[in-house]
Amino acid sequence: MHSVVCGSVGASSGLGLRLLAILMRMQLLRQRLESYFEFERLQTNWRTEVVAGLTTFLTMAYIIFVNPSILGEAGMPVMAVTAATCIASATGSILMGAWARYPIALAPGMGLNAYFTYAVVKGLGVSWQVALGAVFLSGLAFFVLTAAGLRQLILAAFPAELYSAVAVGIGFFIALIGLRNAGIIQGHPATLVTLGDLSSPSTTVALGGLVLTSVLMAWRVRGAILLGVLTTAAAGVTAGIFSWKPQPVSLSALGGTALRLDIPGAMKVGLLEIVFVFLFVDLFDNLGTLVGVGTKAGLFQDARQIPRLERILFTDSVATICGSLTGTSTVVSYIESAAGVAAGGRSGVTAIVAGLMFLVALLVAPVAGGIPAAATAPALILIGSLMASHARDISWEEPLIAVPAFLTIITVPLSFSIANGLSFGFTAYTLLRLARGEFRQVNLLAYGLTLLFLIRFYYLGKA
Fold first, then answer.
1. Torsions phi, psi of 192, nearest 5?
2. What is the DSSP string of 260-329?
């Protein structure tokens, strides 16, 4: 009996020691993680970081529904794009948090997905496989430029105000698409565009969604755009305007787009400008978001001296390459990350949490297949309004900046091409500099890009 009791005590003692050892190892791991993510310097903690990550996810989760809706119009399988959107977003966000250690989440970029569908696939008549090949090449070029240290030369070629103008132009571009998808604006042979039939059932539902989402945003409700999309879709289904056909959850759906990209097709000379647009917009969208969110969070003092900048750019390029391989358009840093920063997020843990939530979001893939274009149209319109806020960064009183910026902004939506807006704006800037005799204020790379733009205009005119 004594030996049995001693054995029981010994077993209990051994179990207690093992549990104590596990707890000590967990505590040591926690301390190491807190040290790695610099919790003490950033004055943050686990609870704050988790809440911030959830907040960031909620503000950008609309992309799970909007991106498949837009790319679906290019002929891509909606379920596959939904899965690709979640996987690419998770990959980029987790890598940004774990390696670059910034509270910035990534996902397929609004504007670039519209360019992918409406300008490249529908406008140029190329297949979505070739368009994905162009996205892959742009991500690869971004990676090489970062490795070679050439990004500083590109950034110095033109003033920052023109990059803001590009963002505004893209905002107008996707807002125009949203207005068209909602039926609020339609084509007209005499006036180009005119007011649509507002009494149409789908347009009425879209208008209701626009009002609801606007009110939610005015009240600063977290996830206002996501709630607006879901509520608008539910209202349309209830009214019998939209149909919803749920499908079983299956990662096998990813096979519809994964590794279907056509890289050789994208390497044709006529399509290289598409690669350039994807690369160019991705580069400056990423840096603009980084500066905006990083400054708000107080993560650096000078935007020209950003810690771990190479890691940030490498992360963005890897996420874009991953997106093209799984089946989605260019992946970029999201300005909605500012919501997580406002909630207290300061470390990479915020981005990791947001990335993990995108993996959990794979479970909503059946819902995404039932979101029609009219239900996501209000989101496109309001995202356009948010992007228009970049206009405040433009020196409108200085013609040297104002004229190129205006040409960029107005040409993107009216020509239905980001490439045209870039070409007009940057060419105008270089020519105005030369006209004022300030040829030394323009670097050689800017001259080279302007020459390429002029050659592009020539060949467009001959086409």
1. 70, -55
2. ---HHHHTSGGGHHHHHHHHHHHHHHHHHHHHHHHHHHT--S-TTS-TTHHHHHHHHHHHHHHHHHHT-S
Nearest to 408 by CA among 425, 395, 387: 425
Question: Taking the mean position of all CA atoms in its chain, how far away is CA 6?
Answer: 64
193 by DSSP, 3-state: which? strand
Q: What span, in angstroms and rounded, lies between the C-alpha atoms of 328 and 128?
A: 10
* Structural domain that includes position 70: 36-462
- Which is higher by pLDDT, 59 or 9? 59
Contact 317, 330 (CB under 8 A): no
Residue showing tokens 């070679």: 148
Average pLDDT over residues 268-295: 70
Residue 93 lies in a domain: yes
In the predicted structure, residue 235 carries a pLDDT above the cut 60: yes
Report the alpha-carbon distance of residue 383 to residue 208 in Å, rounded.
16
CA distances from 113 to 276, 330, 371 (A): 15, 7, 17
Query: Domain for residue 54, yes or no?
Result: yes
Other CB atoms closer than 10 Å to residue 199's CB: what's the count?
8
pTM of the model: 0.79
- The overall longest dimension of the chain from CA atoms, in Å, is 103
Structure tokens at 117: 């569908």
pLDDT the model gives residue 402: 96
Dist CA 55 CA 75 (whole Å): 32
Residue 17 inside a domain? The answer is no
Number of domains, the chain: 1
- The dihedral of CA 196, 198, 203, 208: what is its sign? positive
- pLDDT tens digits for range 305-344: 677 878 888 999 999 999 999 999 999 988 778 778 877 8
Rg (CA), the chain: 24
Closest CA to 94 of 291, 295, 357: 357
Rounded alpha-carbon distances, angstroms, from residue 296 to 237, 391, 394: 40, 18, 19
**Is there a domain that residue 289 lies in?**
yes
Interval 251-267 mean pLDDT: 84
Sign of CA dihedral 56, 58, 64, 65: negative
